[in-house]
Design goal:
This protein is mainly alpha-helical and 441 residues long. It has helices at 2-19, 21-39, 44-50, 69-95, 101-125, 143-152, 159-183, 190-208, 214-232, 236-244, 255-271, 283-299, 302-326, 336-339, 344-369, 381-390, 395-405, 409-434; strands at 54-59, 62-68.
Length: 441
C-alpha cells in the first residue's frame, strides 16, 4: 500500500499536467522551439534530411504506400488528429454547444467571419500565380494554443468565454476540413474513392445495427476508408473525419437505468460480509465489481470513450511530432529580399492578425446587433476583441495547410514566418487584452 501511495504521489503532478487544457499548448510551444533550434543549428541538414527518409511496404519486389517520413506524419499521424477533431465535432453537434441552434449561431458566425476575412486579406495581396494557393493558410485557428493562453488567465475569464472559443475553434476546424477537401486535393481516383465510401457505408450500417466494438470501426476505418482515400487523391485526413462521424454516440444503458443498476450492485456489495483479515476480495465481491465495470462500460458512448482515450495521445505525441516535422524554418540563411520577394509572409501575417480579428469581432458584433443571438454571459466588446486576437493563433492547422498549398520551399518558408509572427503577436495581445478582467473571488 505504501509503495502504491508513493507512486501515486510521484505521478500526480504529471497526471494533473496532462489533464490541464493549457498543457497541450505548452508542449506544442516547446516542440516548435526545438524545431526552430534544430533548423538553425549545425545539425540543420540532418534535421531536414531525416524527414526525407522513405518508409513503405515491399511485396514481391514491388513497393506499396512508399512515402517520405514527412508524408507519413502529415497524412498518417495527422489523420489521427483529424479523427479526434471529427469525434469532437460529432459530440458538439449531437449534445454540445452546436446542438442548440440559437446558442450555436454566434460561434458559427464568428468562425465564418474568421475564415472568410483572412482568406480575402491574403487573396487581395496574392491574387495571381502559385502564391494565391495559400489563401487557406490564415483561415485556421490552433485550438490547443488559443485555449492554452485562455486558461493561463484562470478565473479572470468567465467559463462562457472558454465555451465560446472552443465552439468557434471546432467550427473553424470543420471549415478547414472542408477547405482541404474541396480545394487542396490532387487528381482524384474515383475507383479508390468509391471503395472508401463503401467501407464508410459498412461502418455506418454497423452503427445502425448496434455494433459497439471499437475494433470493428478501427479495421474498416484504417484498412478500408483511410487507405482508400490515401490512394484516391482526396486528402486522407478527410477520411478520418468522415470515419469519426460513423462512431456511435448513443449508449446501451440509459443514465437513469445505469444509476439504478449501480445502486443495486453497491447495495449488494455492502451486504456481503467484509473480508478485512486479508487484503483481497471474495469471489462474490469480485462478481459485483465486474458487473459494475460492465455496466459502466455500456453507459459510456463509444464516441466519448474513444475521444477521452485518444485526446492525450494526440495532444502530447502526435501534435508535437507534427510540429517537430513542420515548424523548423531555417532563417539564418534567408535574405530580406528573398523573404519579401512575394507577399506570402505579409498575406499570411495580416490574414491571421488583422483578418481573423476583424472577422471574428465584426461578424459576432453584427450577429448580436441583428438579434440573431445574444452575447454569452460575461461577454463584452473587450473580451470579444481578446477572443478575436487568440483566434489569430494559427500554428498547427496553418502549418498543415501550408504543406498542402505549396511545393516551393521559399513560399513555404515565407508562409511559416508569417504564421509564427502573427501567432506570437496575436497570443501576446490577446492575453494582454483579456488580462484586464478582474479575477473572481
Amino acid at each position: 500500500m505504501q509503495k502504491n501511495y508513493t507512486i501515486n504521489r510521484a505521478t500526480e503532478p504529471l497526471q494533473k499536467f496532462i489533464q490541464q487544457e493549457k498543457s497541450g499548448g505548452i508542449v506544442l510551444g516547446i516542440s516548435v522551439i526545438i524545431a526552430l533550434f534544430l533548423a538553425n543549428s549545425p545539425w540543420a541538414y540532418d534535421y531536414h534530411h531525416f524527414f526525407e527518409h522513405t518508409l513503405g511496404f515491399t511485396f514481391d519486389g514491388e513497393s506499396f504506400l512508399s512515402y517520405s517520413l514527412h508524408h507519413w506524419i502529415n497524412d498518417g499521424l495527422m489523420a489521427i488528429f483529424f479523427f479526434v477533431v471529427g469525434l469532437e465535432l460529432k459530440r458538439e453537434i449531437v449534445a454540445g454547444e452546436l446542438s442548440n441552434p440559437r446558442k450555436a449561431m454566434l460561434p458559427i458566425l464568428a468562425a465564418f467571419g474568421g475564415m472568410l476575412v483572412p482568406a480575402l486579406v491574403y487573396f487581395s495581396l496574392n491574387p495571381n500565380g502559385e502564391v494565391h494557393h495559400g489563401w487557406g493558410i490564415p483561415m485556421a485557428t490552433d485550438i490547443a494554443f488559443a485555449l492554452g493562453v485562455l486558461y493561463l488567465l484562470g478565473n479572470r475569464i468567465p467559463i462562457s468565454l472558454k465555451v465560446f472559443l472552443t465552439a468557434l475553434a471546432i467550427v473553424d476546424d470543420l471549415g478547414a476540413v472542408l477547405v482541404i477537401a474541396f480545394f487542396y486535393t490532387s487528381e482524384i481516383s474515383m475507383t479508390s474513392l468509391l471503395i472508401g465510401f463503401s467501407f464508410l457505408a459498412i461502418m455506418y450500417a454497423g452503427n445502425k445495427l448496434g455494433v459497439r466494438n471499437i475494433l470493428f470501426y478501427a479495421v474498416f476505418g484504417i484498412l478500408g476508408v483511410w487507405t482508400s482515400f490515401l490512394l484516391s487523391g482526396v486528402h486522407a485526413t478527410i477520411a478520418a473525419v468522415l470515419a469519426a462521424f460513423t462512431i456511435p454516440a448513443n449508449v446501451r444503458i440509459r443514465e437513469n437505468i445505469y444509476i439504478q443498476k449501480i445502486q443495486n450492485r453497491l447495495q449488494q456489495f455492502k451486504s456481503i460480509d467484509p473480508n478485512d483479515k486479508i487484503p483481497t476480495l471474495t469471489n462474490e465481491q469480485l462478481h459485483h465489481l465486474d458487473e459494475i465495470k460492465k455496466d459502466t462500460y455500456l453507459a459510456i458512448p463509444p464516441l466519448q470513450r474513444l475521444e477521452h482515450a485518444m485526446h492525450p495521445f494526440v495532444t502530447f505525441l502526435i501534435i508535437p511530432i507534427f510540429a517537430l516535422a513542420n515548424a523548423g524554418v531555417t532563417v539564418i540563411d534567408i535574405q530580406l529580399d528573398q523573404l519579401f520577394s512575394t507577399n506570402v509572409a505579409l498575406g499570411v501575417a495580416l490574414g491571421l492578425l488583422v483578418g481573423k480579428v476583424i472577422g471574428v469581432f465584426g461578424f459576432t458584433w453584427l450577429g448580436v446587433k441583428l438579434k440573431i443571438a445574444p452575447f454569452p454571459d460575461g461577454m463584452n466588446l473587450r473580451n470579444l476583441l481578446g477572443i478575436g486576437l487568440l483566434a489569430s493563433i494559427g500554428f498547427t492547422m496553418s502549418l498543415f495547410i501550408t504543406s498542402l498549398a505549396f511545393t516551393n520551399e521559399i513560399y513555404i518558408t515565407q508562409a511559416k514566418i508569417g504564421i509564427f509572427t502573427a501567432s506570437i503577436i496575436g497570443g501576446v495581445l490577446g492575453y494582454w487584452v483579456l488580462s484586464k478582467n478582474k479575477a473572481k473571488e
